[in-house]
Specification:
globular; 725 residues; alpha+beta; 5-stranded antiparallel beta sheet; 6-stranded antiparallel beta sheet
């Protein structure tokens, strides 16, 4: 049967050749075999990142979370922004012609000089002038027909039957940004159904805002089925002056107001967009401002699928902006001024994929499929190592990949607090002060940072973080009650120093000198599970170093909050993140009238010192300068001496990025920094291909094994058919 044998051999050769061709194409392809992205995106100017939970609010009147700012801060444009490179942080114009300066008025609305004493200032008025020619992103809310009528503002339920996303509206339009849009958004802060998280605070400052909320509530009650058109209700503290100017009037002198003008809360919302989304049937389809933002910024949200992916793309109507041409010392050498003067944004698209677990994200980062990564506790040792001088550096594996490490001290503080109302740990006598000072020495934050935070932090010397006006460097900046300045750096005082203070406080060897009883203190915590045991044991050990017995009082979160409100806690841990880069935003945490007990304020230690409070009331409304610095220095000295906190630490942020990711300087106050980032797609594609080559032998086995199983049967089948013939 030579014919049958010849055909079987030929069939075998064809099968093997086909498999060989398939394997060759597979092994030699320049595109990684395991890429999670479509082939059409390969080599494009796209940034890849992730998110781990669905953003709850994308409406700027409601959003107050960092995971939401990742998106809305790239889309909306408030009047001001932070300079990307300069430190200390500096406000600059974004959509305005300049940073507004307040005009001061007395109670009779008479203009006062800029040097008027604070007690004479009844009102501060900010005239905010925006740049002409700024256009909104394309959006169906702006679409008009041939007669100039808005196309989609009188939709019937049947019109929405085939609409699932914003992209299902075939027509879009745009229009120019005006002052009315900014005023409209300020009014929305008082909207009864939006529950803006800053309404309570802003109603204390913006003239008429508290009363405005009552006006809107009545309008909703009188006309519950109608759209609440805020343009029909004037607000005294926010008024349009002309097409490109509006006036914001606040009570008294409140210099921190300009910082709020850099937040999305004060970004513009066009009234017609609000009306568009308020139509019947829209909310049921997630067609709302909370789901589809509308702005003038460099990017617009084009995909909102929070169970999988969120995508922002370049806004074709963006008014343009240039990369900054100046920064701080060292920025040029670090490459942060290479793009000076170039047009923004640099990237065309940003893709954020849902990653709920840190390990899969980390693996994709190492494969080159994410451009930036934080460092979790699980991956810290793989990424970072400590040098012999105690400095942080990358491991050899990270260096080999060209990965870069960027660190920055966060504008935050975590501290050990003492309840100043407690009869043992609180109080203002010299005995009480020395007890708290002794604990502050024994509670070694440098060791805590090393053990429990992998070195990611710096010991705090006072309540104000580095980078905020008022914080001092060098020997002038240390807490002399806890540290000494030696060898050009702070050194914590010794345990012997702490024991001496404890004895002077009346507790020699940890025993009350009057009763002989051991000193027992209570550390109030919440959620102290198995993972917290090591940390709590560490705290107990450090108190024991100075012969103080510590008892842990663990409660659930709600009961812990109740204890804090009643003043029943004794020693506790607390923290604060800056809302804006001003010392007032940290020193108010120690202002007496902000006490937790009786006021439910942010002064969790219930600290009250008349001299501190008097200085705070003057300092908070002063402009930055020599006089304000001197006042801050006095206040910091008072709280260092009184020690209502063991000052704890400022967290340090560690970020990794690949070599193709440019302009990676951290800015912990600005949240609209995506426009400054630049990607080099060519080197990224090359490294992805290098790092994701398939392992040849396992793949070959996987491809050839089915052939080895099936081929003999095919040959027998062919021979049998030939025999039958």
């Amino acid at each position: 049967m030579p014919g049958a044998c010849w055909r079987s051999t030929r069939l075998t050769r064809l099968l093997v050749a086909a498999l060989g061709l398939q394997f060759g194409l597979f092994a030699c392809s320049s595109r990684p075999w395991n890429t999670p992205y479509p082939a059409s995106d390969e080599g494009r100017n796209i940034l890849y990142s992730s998110f781990d939970e669905r953003p709850k609010h994308l409406d700027p009147a409601r959003s107050y979370s960092s995971n939401e700012n990742v998106f809305i801060a790239q889309i909306y444009e408030p009047p001001l922004q932070y300079h990307f490179l300069k430190r200390p942080y500096e406000l600059v114009a974004l959509t305005t012609t300049e940073v507004p300066k307040p005009a001061y008025f007395d109670a009779q609305h008479r203009r006062l000089p800029d040097t008027a004493p604070i007690e004479r200032i009844a009102y501060s008025a900010y005239d905010i002038r925006i740049q002409p020619g700024i256009m909104y992103q394309p959006h169906p809310a702006f679409a008009k027909d041939a007669a100039g009528r808005l196309t989609y503002h009188a939709l019937a339920p049947s019109d929405l039957e085939r609409v699932s996303t914003l992209a299902d509206f075939p027509q879009t339009g745009t229009r120019e940004l005006t002052a009315d849009d900014y005023v409209y958004q300020i009014k929305r802060l008082a909207h009864p159904t939006l529950h803006s998280p800053i309404f309570g605070l802003m109603s204390e400052y913006i003239v008429g805002l508290a009363e405005y909320s009552s006006v809107l509530e009545k309008a909703l009650t009188d006309h519950p089925t109608e759209f609440l058109d805020l343009t029909r209700y004037p607000l005294e503290g926010a008024a349009v002056v002309d097409r490109y100017t509006y006036r914001l009037t606040v009570k008294g002198k409140y210099p921190q107001m300009v910082y709020w003008l850099a937040m999305p809360f004060f970004a513009p919302i066009p009234p017609e967009v609000d009306r568009f989304y308020s139509q019947s049937g829209m909310a049921e389809k997630n067609l709302t401002l909370d789901w589809y933002p509308v702005g003038t910024g460099p990017f617009m949200l084009t995909v909102n699928n929070p169970n999988r992916q969120m995508v922002m793309e370049r806004n074709p109507n963006f008014h343009g902006e240039q990369y900054p041409a100046e920064g701080e010392a060292g920025d040029a050498a670090a490459g942060f001024l290479t793009d000076a003067g170039k047009s923004l944004p640099f990237i065309d698209k940003a893709v954020y994929s849902l990653e709920k677990e840190s390990i899969p994200y980390w693996n994709k980062f190492l494969q080159g499929y994410y451009d930036v990564s934080g460092i979790s506790s699980e991956t810290f040792d793989q990424a970072v190592q400590m040098t012999g001088h105690g400095e942080v550096g990358l491991t050899e594996d990270m260096d080999a990949k060209g990965i870069r490490l960027v660190t920055s001290v966060e504008t935050s503080i975590f501290y050990l607090g003492f309840n100043m109302l407690d009869p043992v740990i609180g109080g203002y006598s010299e005995r009480n002060r020395k007890l708290r000072q002794a604990i502050s020495i024994a509670y070694d934050d440098d060791e805590f940072i090393s053990i429990f935070r992998n070195g990611r932090g710096s010991a705090a010397q006072g309540p104000i973080p580095p980078g905020i006006f008022g914080a001092l460097d060098g020997p002038r900046g240390i807490n002399p009650y806890v540290f000494d300045w030696k060898d050009n750096q702070p050194h914590r005082k010794s345990i012997d120093d702490a024991k001496r203070l404890l004895a002077e406080a009346g507790y020699p060897n940890g025993r009350d000198s009057q009763t002989g009883k051991p000193l027992v203190v209570h550390f109030d915590v919440t959620g102290g599970g198995p993972d917290d045991k090591a940390r709590l044991d560490w705290v107990r050990k450090h108190f024991a170093k100075i012969d103080i017995e510590m008892e842990i009082r663990d409660t659930d979160y709600n009961r812990f909050q109740d204890k804090m409100l009643r003043g029943d806690a004794q020693i506790f841990q607390w923290g604060w993140n800056a809302d804006y880069p001003d010392p007032e935003n940290f020193l108010f945490l120690l202002y007496g009238p902000n006490a937790k007990v009786g006021k439910n304020g942010e002064n969790a230690a219930n600290y009250q010192n008349t001299e501190f409070d008097r200085r705070f009331e003057r300092m908070k409304n002063m402009d930055n300068g020599v006089e304000r610095q001197a006042m801050i220095d006095q206040m910091v000295e008072i709280v260092r001496r009184d020690a209502p906190w063991a000052f704890g630490f400022h967290p340090k942020q560690f970020t990794l990025h690949h070599a193709w990711y440019r302009n990676a300087k951290p800015n912990l106050m600005a949240n609209n920094t995506l426009k400054y980032k630049r990607i080099e797609p060519g080197p990224r594609s090359q490294r992805r291909a290098e790092w994701n080559r398939p392992t040849v032998v396992p793949v070959a086995v996987a491809l050839l094994l089915p052939v080895a199983v099936v081929l003999p049967a095919v040959i027998r089948y062919v021979r049998r058919n030939r025999s039958a013939a």
